[in-house]
Amino acid sequence: MRAAPVLCATAGSLILSALVPAPASAAGPTPPPAAETAGSTIAALRAADTGIDWGTCPKAEGLPKPIKCGTVTVPLDYAHPMGKQIKLTVSRAKATGKNIDKGKGHKVARQGPLVFNPGGPGGNGMYFPMAGTQPEWQHIGAAYDLIGYAPRGVGRSAPLSCEDPKKSRKGPTQSPTHPSAAYKKKRVAQAKEYARGCAERNPDIEHFNTLNNARDLDVLRAALGEKKLTFMGASYGTYIGAVYAELFPSHVRRMVFDSAVDPSPEGIWYANNLEQSAAFEHRWADFRAWVARHDKTYHLGDTPEKVLAAYEKVRAEVSREPAGGKVGPAQLQSAFLQTGYYDDYWPLRAHALSAYVKGDPKPLVDQAAPVRESAKEDENSNAVYTAVQCNDASWPTDFRTWDRDNSALAKRAPFETWDNAWMNLPCAYWSTPRRQPLDVRTAPGELPPTLILAAERDAATPYKGAQELNRRLAGSALVTERKAGTHGIGAGPNKCVNGRLDAYLLSGELPEEGAASCAPHKEPKPLGT
Predict the structure, then answer these.
(1) What is the pTM of this model?
(2) Pairing of strands 85-93, 145-149
(3) Please, what is the Cα angle at 342 between 402 and 344, to 5 degrees?
(4) CB-CB neighbours of 35 under 10 Å
(5) Catalytic annotation, pick one of 286, 344, 458, 502
(6) Which of the chain's ends, N or C, has fewer CB atoms near its CB within 10 Å?
(7) List 40, 91, 161, 235, catalytic entry
(8) How far is CA 172 from CA 74, 136, 309, 311, 320, in A?
(9) Half-sphere CA count of 209, side-chain side, radius 13 A
(10) Element housing 192 (H / E)
């Protein structure tokens, strides 16, 4: 969201997320072309015959033994399945088969591979097999081979790049909540330049979209030797899963949607983007209320309003004199945006803000300064994010529309609105053909029962998106963590949610009457308490 998608992992769920939504054109959704449908069948048959040659993971992946790696070959363009091919990297940790529940819960019997997508667009799921070492994943890791992969464009999977990584991570930079006309003009020029860079550096960029991500997923299923797919997607990964369910309903075994994107065609992606910015304002308020409740620790104010005043004071100071020469308003906002994703960050960010106010900028610089070592990975993620979102749907091409909508929203939701808009603005000037989003909707009996997980106050994927997906997928069940807002709740700190996830993946069990609620997980405590 913004200059680069936020790709963060929670300790419990290892979920990467950067979903920044937004509009479908008036023409409405259209079905995928027959040539691409046939092409995906050809590619899957070829992959089933070839399989995956598992071996030692390349050093670049940073994955420990006994995790194995391989590649899956997919067509760049499914309308021409015998044409140019690209390779997707895949990782695997075999099911442990350990009877760790000691007969008190689910039987541990091998159930095949579980494929995971962490979101984004631009998230790299190659790390996923390491999740099996965490207690929250042990039951699932005992029964399933844990399969991670890097979607097309990501990591070593035919990587995309739209600009010099050194340029994408520079700082300090500004980030006005109510930008001037001159600043808007500057950002429009930057968006046009970025869109041109994407097109010039990647002549095949139009083929990087959600439809092809879903087709790639089916080729991966076939390469794994499975007739049916067991899949878990988080954030944007839920949209890949939803599109897959629409395209390949008979290929689904079990499917988990964690922190679901609203798949309504009219929301992909511009309208969803505005909804997201509004939701972040509420989550930003949750963080400030928590800081205020711990005023004895942080001394930033005993009301959310006082905490906001302290933050705005720091924002003004780093605008005049960047912290450590590296942290300006944009870097500050980027760091504190993470509090809207994960409450794990609340103690860290509150401590950094408090220390800065007391005269110690080091914690803030450590947490908010650009990291040179991650510049290449961050630029790649941002390129994939932009390509997929711009290719997926029609966007307003007149900046006056963006200006009108975001100026109005920023009056009541200033925290994230304009930064979110700037990140997506290259889509207004995108040169490749746009696709129409699928109208994801399955009839009773068409799709096996699926599980949707959602936090009631999730900002990155607002809760109404989970409700909409629940309505569209017949037979799905919705598990809600009430009064909580962490993004990506599966295998996280909530034992109730985890119990529902285990029950579904291990035995196919869903809540009665298609819904269940869980009390919120405990709020974090201040550092050192």
Answers:
(1) 0.93
(2) antiparallel
(3) 150
(4) 13
(5) 458
(6) C
(7) 235
(8) 40, 39, 22, 17, 11
(9) 23
(10) helix 181-201
Strand pairing category for 229-234 and 145-149: unpaired
Adjacent-strand bridge partners of 517: 480
- 259 touches 461 (CB < 8 A): yes
Active site residue 235: yes
Give the tens place of pLDDT for each residue, 121-167. 999 999 999 999 999 999 999 999 999 999 999 999 999 999 999 87
Question: Whose CA is closest to 6, among 22, 17, 21?
Answer: 17
Residue 458 designated active-site: yes
Task: In whole angstroms, give the CA distance from residue 487 to residue 459.
Answer: 7
Closest to 154 measured CA to CA, from 105, 90, 84, 238: 90
Helix (H, G, I), strand (E, B) or coil at 221: helix
Q: pLDDT tens, 330-339?
A: 999 999 999 9
* Beta-ladder partners of 273: none
183 closest CA partner among 395, 406, 436, 361: 406
Q: Could you say which of 354, 487, 502, 521 is catalytic?
A: 487
CA–CA gap between residue 1 and residue 378 (Å, rounded) = 12
